[in-house]
Design a protein that fits this description.
Elements lengths: L16 H11 L2 H41 L4 H9 L1 E6 L2 E6 H22 L1
């Protein structure tokens, strides 16, 4: 039966756990990890924070505009816009749905893509 080694140290998986942990700590000292991450983290988060801020402001303005238009005298035209049909056609094959359906499905796909990317980060 073959046994694997930890971090190339020659200690096999049959070694006591305390020896394996000691070798892992020696290979990856905690102080080095903290110093490396603390140097690069602030610069990366500053640019991301600004982008998140501007995206949130744009989303808030769009939501406010949609609420105002939906509750004004423009409501029938606003509803007619969403009830209009959008179509994608390639040759004789086509897909025809309401604009509301395209927006809902498209935004749902983008939402889950962003959630997946955020979890990965």
């Amino acid at each position: 039966m073959e046994r694997s080694s930890i971090v190339g140290s020659g200690v096999t998986s049959g070694a006591p756990i305390c020896e394996r942990l000691k070798i892992a700590r020696e290979a990856f000292p905690a102080g080095e990890r903290l110093v490396a991450s603390s140097r690069s983290a602030p610069a990366a988060h500053q640019s991301t924070d600004k982008a998140d801020l501007y995206g949130g402001i744009a989303l808030g303005i769009a939501t406010l505009a949609a609420l105002i238009i939906a509750n004004s005298s423009l409501a029938p035209q606003y509803r007619a816009l969403f009830d209009a049909t959008g179509e994608i056609r390639i040759g004789s094959i086509g897909l025809s749905k309401s604009i509301e359906h395209w927006v809902n499905d498209g935004l749902m796909a983008i939402f889950f893509l962003l959630i997946g990317l955020e979890i990965k980060r």
